[in-house]
Specification:
This protein is of the alpha/beta class. It has one domain (about 15-235): Nucleoside phosphorylase domain (Rossmann fold, 3-Layer(aba) Sandwich), CATH 3.40.50.1580. It has 8 helices and 9 strands. The protein has helices at about 20-30, 65-80, 115-120, 130-145, 165-170, 180-190, 215-220, 220-235; strands at about 15-20, 35-40, 45-50, 55-60, 85-95, 105-110, 150-155, 175-180, 195-205. A 5-stranded mixed beta barrel has the order 5-8-7-6-9. It starts with 14 loop residues before the first strand and ends with a helix. The model has no long low-confidence stretch (mean pLDDT about 95). Bound molecules: 1-O-phosphono-alpha-D-ribofuranose (R1P) and uracil. Uracil binds near residues 90, 92, 178, 179 and 203. 1-O-phosphono-alpha-D-ribofuranose binds near residues 20, 89 and 181.
Amino acid sequence: MTIHIGAAPGDIAETVLMPGDPYRAKWAAERYLQDCRLVNEVRGMLGYTGTWRGKPVTIHGSGMGMPSLSIYANELIRDYGARTLVRIGSCGAMQDHIELRDVIVAMTASAVSTPSRGIFREMNFAPCADWGLLRAAVAAAEARGARVHVGGIHSSDVFYDERPDLGEQLSRHGVLAVEMEAAELYTVAARHGARALAVLTVSDHLITHAALPSEDRERGFGEMVEIALEAALGTE
Ligand SMILES: O=P(O)(O)O[C@H]1O[C@H](CO)[C@@H](O)[C@H]1O
Ligand SMILES: O=c1cc[nH]c(=O)[nH]1
């Protein structure tokens, strides 16, 4: 057990899928895993471990925002031995050609700051995805005919953005979408020699203001989960 995870040693698989929403973790675990059991519910941050195609996998919530994700990623890697962490999240599209429910695979994540920012002092560290996971996720997405976009995203500290000028500059520089965790996930994973990737589903559009309801954000993103499972486990 750690401060924030009640799982016993050995209860967490080396491969962990991490949605922000703990109820998306429950939905995905019950839908996709065999022999799935609850391994954590401290603070309501649900985590489940089971198997997918016979391979062990944990699906564990990260909470919203990088400080929350950072706690879980650190404990999962350092205390439970997680080696592959794939975020399965929602995001807001920042380009005209992207549509609701499209899948985004994040090569890199720009951020004003991350909980790891202090380590780098004057350096602007560039958090990046694990290449093998990224390649496998894109292959899985293309094989199923998903509408998939691969590129940079923005990991924001805020959902309600008071700096539209910043988003405009990022859109202008080709950033595909905004979410709130990937930059710290990539940074923590890199620090500990683990593999990380974010596979996201577009839940709302910052240009058109189209948006999906919260029920879809909890239970409507099966394609993303399947792509993440295939990327993390299908190639091992
Ligand atoms: O759907 P999840 O994975 O929570 O991700 C996105 O949704 C939350 C904001 O509504 C933030 O956590 C953001 O990153
Ligand atoms: O962080 C997020 C997630 C979805 N949509 C947004 O606009 N921001």
